[in-house]
Amino acid sequence: MAKYRVVYTQFWDDPRVVEEMTPEDKYVFHYLLTNKNTKQIGIYTITKKQMAFDTGYSQETIQSILERLINKHQLVKYNLDTREIRLKIGGNSILFASGKPVEDCMKK
């Protein structure tokens, strides 16, 4: 069964996205919202090597972009030990759109 994630088109009109993010930030954040590893609650395991491979960036570039997404934009958190990423906006947007199925997933 195919997976899909709701990404609001308003993403591209958000002032933080338009005024504060570089094109690379936008691309990688959008990738983090929609890649094959995503989960409904916005927390999933992914390596920096996988991110680099999927996006075509070097691991050093991914590290730099992740640092901006974590520290400057405060949109993600990344645990180096477990290689889990948490999308702050992604989880909330998906939860709003998906309702009870996501609530059930979160309880598990």
Architecture overview:
A hairpin with a 4-residue loop joins strand 2 and strand 3. The protein has helices at 15-20, 23-34, 48-55, 59-72, 88-98, 100-107, and strands spanning 43-45, 76-79, 84-87. The protein has a three-stranded antiparallel sheet. 55% of the residues lie in helices and 10% in strands. It is mainly alpha-helical and 108 residues long. It has one domain (9-107): Orthogonal Bundle (Arc Repressor Mutant, subunit A).
Write down how many β-strands occur, each being a DSSP E stretch of 2 or more residues: 3
* Low-pLDDT residue intervals, each spanning 5 or more residues: 90-97
Instruction: Give helix % range.
Output: 40-55%
Main pleated-sheet profile: 3 strands, antiparallel
